[in-house]
Amino acid sequence: MGVDFLRAYDEHASAVYGYLAYRVPTRADAEDLTQVTFERAFNAWDRYDPGRASVRTWLLAIARNALVDKNRRDRSTPYVSLSERSDREAQLPHTPGPEADVGLSPDLAAALATLGRRERAVIALRFGADLRGPEIAQMLELSLTNAQQITSRALRQLRTELEKGEAARELGSGGERADTGKPDRRDRHKRQPRSEVRRHLKP
Question: pTM, whole model, 2 decimals?
Fold first, then answer.
């Protein structure tokens, strides 16, 4: 395995996993698809052209294709986890992956589920993969203005959904937070990594 590929894994695995964590319902799916992405990248590494795309955007394009394949497969046959596939993953890096640190809170996951496919893709690239507007526009074949408008609209919807959840909990608790000696559910957002939309929706 080339040193360049190992470096690519070290530098971009978190972005790939972060993107996928925004697009699939479970952490296990995100972990499996991250492995699939790097397996495919390893097999295609000699065809990577730095003149056409950065390593990160190339890997994210592979991740997006892996996600499309998974969705197609899910509509016809049960999904088989990577652990049940061939032993090709033995060739992949075994350094600690990003999945130990990245996760979505239940509130944010529920809010994301209300977004349309394109809005969720833009949010995943912006906050999960840490891409900027021009990179997102290029990946999704949108104008920069359109990508920015979609991001702004999606963030407004997420904020509205999250505020609904906060209000519902306040009503359910009579407007007060019980002192249980445990961290409040809302405080968990503050301990989440960038997959929590920059500490709640700071574009």
Answer: 0.71
Q: Return the amino acid letter for 114.
A: T
The C-alpha atoms of residue 58 and residue 119 are separated, in whole angstroms, by 21
Is the same domain home to 55 and 108? Answer: no
pLDDT at residue number 172:
66
- Regarding whether 63 and 27 lie in a shared domain, the answer is yes
Half-sphere exposure of residue 108: CA atoms within 13 angstroms, side-chain side: 31
The tens digit of pLDDT for each residue in 4-17 reads 999 999 999 999 99
The token pair at 70 is 């998974």
Contact 129, 18 (CB under 8 A): yes
DSSP state of 105: -
Examine the fold and report which residue of 64, 80, 102 is the final residue of a domain before the chain moves on.
102
